[in-house]
Specification:
heterodimer; A: about 200 residues; mainly alpha; Four Helix Bundle (Hemerythrin (Met), subunit A); about 85% helix; B: mainly alpha; 2 domains; about 0% strand; flat; disordered N terminus
């Protein structure tokens, strides 16, 4: 039995070995998942505490949310194409796809900030009601993550510039950001479903 | 094609086809969720159940096609950490809702 396990492990090692850096980053993402879980729990508790202020139905614009969703989903797949280029060592294509992903992410952020500023301008800022506090905290935290992802992406575009071959370290960095970016898209699925869509039913 | 890269990240980084498959399924699920809400075709509780299921399916699609999660041995610890996190988040959210609901009933704040 013990022998079998060793043989199995040896086989697995031979077949493929994921970098410990990437696994460590995966564990960080899992803790991030718990942060978002907490914020979703807060929102679920506060979602009907309007304090006489507007409800989600009054202030959410589903068309805008639809466009944001489309931008983020498209950016997920363009980053994926970038990773495929990276694994084929086509660095020009990699930078191109990262650039496209960056612009899509920037478009998402622009839409979100425009929505936020409209809401604040109309007096529906985070100080209006518990519902809006929870809304701004949850969606704002996601937006902050997207901002960090964009900064990271810009740094990687610069760092891969002028290179002809990707070092293992650089590939790990790209892989970590790809996990981060796809993870943010998954969080956004929960945001548009449980925050926006459920509030307008 | 995949064999050329077994030295690093192996078969776990997906192909153009798998990304496109995941993308098309995600678009369909997203459009379905927005459509169900905008069309008002179900009762409110039916709509909530429908979009929750659509979201759960889409999360699985993203995990498989974009994050390349699978049951292979190289992914064992990633999947284990993920399952543990899902359990933690489940306890967190359901526990919070249960306690806060109970509190608001006992304090008659509704």
């Amino acid at each position: 039995m013990a022998h079998d396990i060793t043989a199995d492990a040896a086989h697995a090692h031979e077949e493929h070995h994921e970098s410990p850096v990437v696994f460590g980053f995966w564990l960080y993402l899992m803790t991030d998942c718990i942060i978002f879980g907490t914020l979703f729990a807060v929102f679920a508790v506060m979602r009907n505490q309007f304090a006489g202020g507007p409800t989600g139905k009054d202030i959410f614009d589903l068309n805008g949310v639809g466009i944001e969703t489309a931008l983020l989903l498209l950016s997920s797949i363009t980053y994926g194409f970038g990773m495929i280029s990276a694994h084929q060592n086509k660095l020009g294509a990699l930078r191109g796809w990262l650039g496209v992903t960056f612009i899509l992410g920037l478009g998402f952020l622009f839409m979100e900030l425009r929505e936020f500023s409209h809401m604040v301008a109309e007096g529906n800022g985070p100080d209006r009601s518990a519902f809006l506090s929870a809304f701004f905290t949850l969606v704002g935290t996601h937006g902050l993550h997207v901002t960090c992802g964009l900064l990271w992406m810009a740094v990687l575009i610069v760092q891969t510039g002028g290179k002809t071959v990707l070092s293992e370290r650089m590939t790990n960095k790209l892989t970590c950001l790809s996990l981060f970016w796809h993870f943010l898209d998954i969080v956004w699925i929960c945001v548009f479903t449980f925050v926006y869509l459920m509030s307008v039913i | 094609m995949a064999d050329a890269h077994t030295d690093h990240s192996g078969a776990s980084h997906g192909s153009v086809g798998s990304y496109l498959t995941g993308f098309v399924i995600s678009v369909l699920l997203t459009v379905a969720a927005f459509g169900v809400v905008m069309a008002h075709s179900f009762s409110p509780s039916g709509t909530i159940a429908a979009i929750a299921i659509l979201a759960a399916v889409q999360i699985v699609v993203h995990l498989v096609f974009f994050l390349h999660m699978n049951t292979s041995s190289e992914q064992r610890w990633n999947v284990m950490a993920f399952v543990f996190t899902v359990l933690t988040v489940f306890i967190l959210i359901v526990g919070t809702l249960f306690i806060m609901h109970d509190t608001s009933i006992n304090m008659m704040s509704r």
